[in-house]
Request: fold
Amino acid sequence: MSVLGTTVFKVPKLGETGFKIDQVNEQKRKQAQQQLQKEVDGTGAEKAYMDNAMGLTGIYKQIADSSYDVFRQAAVEYERTGSASAETRMKQAAGELTYSVTAGRSILDVAGKEYVSNKANGFKDVALSPEEASELYTGFTNRTGEVIVKNGRVMVKDGDAFVPATQSTYLQSSVNMNNSLVLPRTVKQGTYVNFTTFLDETKGAIRAGSSVGNASSRVNTLYEEKYKDKQFQSDVLTAYAISEDDGLGMVEDPTKISAEKLAEIADLASNEEIVAQAKEWYRERVLGSVPPLWSAGSQGSGLSIGAGTSKDLEFINNTTVDFTAMTKDDKGNWMIDDKNVDQIEFDSYAGFQSNLQGKSYTDAKKFKYDIVGIGVKEGRIFADKQAQDDAGFWSLSSGKQFQKRAEKMTGSEYSRLPTDTRNLLKMKFGKDLYKMLGLKSEEELKNIEKDVTSQDNNESDDSEQKLRETLKSQGFSDEDIEGIISGK
Reply:
């Protein structure tokens, strides 16, 4: 009988073999998934979203968030299957997400710069109040819309239909009302919209009148003759339309008229009744101003500097002007003290039109006042000062507070008057001007004017620096800031 061999053969365990195969397959799957993930990351879509999402608002945030959801779903599907169709959908979603967030951010950034640059100059070129401009900007950036996902694409309601968001007017590259902040611009008003401009041209006729009635008749004749001019008719209609003094009150701020509003006013020319009302309304304001002008001209020979222009100084001889002090009532509120009235009789006096007045002077106690005219008494020029605040302003000479007060004009006060005003005063007083301001020489006056000009320039530089700091704090680049400052 043969003996069995002693060699042992080890049979592999099937479970262990299967496990090793699974490990290999899992490793291959992870490597493949990592490769797919790299392809997804390589689109840059997720990074674009993360970099810009915080700066998006309103409908642009709606579109971006929906686009991100679509992209993530497409990316997960591609990572799961790796199919060519899934890859196509993922890449399309990536492209639309990237475009949506970058275009949306760019549109909002441009709107922000438009608002900030106009705010920096006081909205002087915008036919809106600062409050209205702010509301328009806020409304533009925060408005929302109807956004849906259909067949794996983000759709937005644009007009009456839903269209792919990237093809909507909200994200178009060409300027339109949906992707641009439009602050309506002001337009230059006609010469005679302010009726005082026409009135200034008639002062010669008023002074030549033998009586108030005769002066009014002369002015009325000039008015009828002037009204034959089409542009003058247009200015009369505009004045009536924008005025809240028994006019139509079609604008909130008569100094700011947009092109659209001006076109609306021009359309009124076809309404004969309104045109007739405007003509009579303008005539009433012109003729209503004749009596005081004729009376003032008849009080003395006087002298008119710059007559017939919008920069006219008319000196009336032997004029008495009242100036009242301020007092506090029982509640501590400032009020005019009727019992404390000073009367000053000037050898000659001239009131300043608004464009010739000295604005925003500050006295020793930080009260603000304007210089609204000048008087001459005993060879010395007095400034007619009018307070800007209810509390009046402080008088250095009397130690009291006044709403209106005449005091000897200083060289510094004179030097801060508008250039046109100073030129008119030089025409009036000639080489005696420095003496009438209490100065020792013409050279001293020139030096004061130079110092004030230099100070004004420095204040302008300070204002520009503050604007730069504000824009910097809001995230504007140095290049953007330079563009805003320079107006480019």
